[in-house]
C-alpha cells in the first residue's frame, strides 16, 4: 500500500506530560492546527503522541496496510484476510466494551503495532484486558513501549478504567519485559487460561491499576457505584 502526503487540518488535543514510570515520556502538544502525513482518505485523530509514535483508533481505511503488516510478521493471532479484518473491526466501539488502537510512526504515519483493550467491564471492576503486537520490521525498536505508555494514559484518563490486565505466556519474554517496564505486577499463573490454535494454553497474569501508574481521574466513570 502506497503512502501519499495528504495535507489537511487536524485539531491536536492537549494533555499534561505523563508522570514518569521509567518508560517513555508521552508528551501531548498544545492545541493547534497543524499539517500531517497520513493515508489518503483516512481521517485520523491522534489520541496521544510521544516523541516517535502516535496513537489512534483503527478504522476501515487501515485494512490494506494492516493485512500487509500481519502477513509480513510471524506468529500473530491477528486477522489476515479482508473478511477477518472486518469481523475484527466490528468488535470495537470506542471503549464501551473494547477499543482497537494503532501505534503509528509520527514521521511517516506507517503502522508499527496494534494494541487492543478487550473485555471492558464497568461497575465495580472498571477493568480491561490488553492484547498487543509489534509488526515487522518495526519490532525491537522501542516503538511499542512508547505506544503502550500512550495506551495506558488513554485507558486511565479518557476511558477512566481502574485496572488493566495482560495475559502472557511464560515463554514470551519480550512481552513480559514490556509490561514490567511499565510497572505491571505479576499476579500468578493460570493453566489452560486462553484457547489459542484450538487448545487451552497457560498464561501468566499481569496487571496495572491507575494509582500504580500515577493517574487517578478527578471523577470516576459514571458506571462506578458510589457505595
Keywords:
single chain, 227 residues, alpha+beta, Aminopeptidase, 8-stranded mixed β-sheet, two-stranded antiparallel sheet, 10 strands, 21% helix
Mean pLDDT across all residues, rounded?
84
CATH hierarchy: architecture of the domain at 10-162:
3-Layer(aba) Sandwich
Count of beta strands: 10
Distance between the terminal alpha carbons, to the nearest Å?
Answer: 52 Å
Q: If you consult CATH, what is the topology of the domain at 10-162?
A: Aminopeptidase
- The helix-and-strand class reads alpha+beta
Major beta sheet summary? 8 strands, mixed
| Rounded radius of gyration (Å) | 17 Å
Helix content percent band? 10-25%
- Low-confidence region ranges: 1-40
Oligomer classification: single chain
At the fourth level of CATH, the homologous superfamily of the domain at 10-162 is Gcn5-related N-acetyltransferase (GNAT)
Order of the strands making up the biggest sheet: 3-4-5-6-7-8-10-9
Question: What's the short story on this structure?
Answer:
The chain has 227 residues and is an alpha+beta fold.
Amino acid at each position: 500500500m502506497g503512502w501519499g502526503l495528504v495535507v489537511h487540518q487536524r485539531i491536536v488535543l492537549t494533555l499534561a506530560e505523563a508522570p514518569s514510570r521509567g518508560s517513555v515520556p508521552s508528551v501531548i502538544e498544545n492545541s493547534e492546527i497543524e499539517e500531517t502525513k497520513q493515508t489518503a482518505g483516512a481521517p485520523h485523530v491522534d489520541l496521544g503522541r510521544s516523541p516517535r509514535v502516535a496513537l489512534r483508533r483503527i478504522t476501515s481505511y487501515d485494512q490494506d496496510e494492516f493485512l500487509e503488516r500481519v502477513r509480513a510478521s510471524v506468529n500473530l493471532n491477528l486477522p489476515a484476510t479482508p473478511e477477518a479484518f472486518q469481523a475484527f473491526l466490528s468488535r470495537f466501539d470506542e471503549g464501551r466494551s473494547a477499543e482497537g488502537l494503532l501505534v503509528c510512526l509520527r514521521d511517516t504515519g506507517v503502522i508499527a503495532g496494534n494494541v487492543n483493550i478487550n473485555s471492558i467491564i464497568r461497575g465495580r471492576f472498571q477493568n480491561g484486558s490488553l492484547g498487543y503486537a509489534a509488526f515487522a520490521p518495526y519490532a525491537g525498536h522501542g516503538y511499542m513501549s512508547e505506544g503502550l505508555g500512550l495506551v495506558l494514559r488513554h485507558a486511565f484518563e479518557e476511558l477512566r478504567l481502574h485496572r488493566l490486565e495482560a495475559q502472557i505466556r511464560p515463554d514470551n519474554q519480550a512481552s513480559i519485559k514490556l509490561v514490567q517496564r511499565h510497572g505491571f505486577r505479576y499476579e500468578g499463573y493460570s493453566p489452560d487460561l486462553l484457547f489459542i490454535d484450538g487448545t487451552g494454553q497457560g498464561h501468566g497474569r499481569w496487571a496495572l491499576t491507575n494509582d500504580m501508574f500515577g493517574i487517578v481521574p478527578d471523577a470516576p466513570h459514571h458506571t462506578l457505584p458510589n457505595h
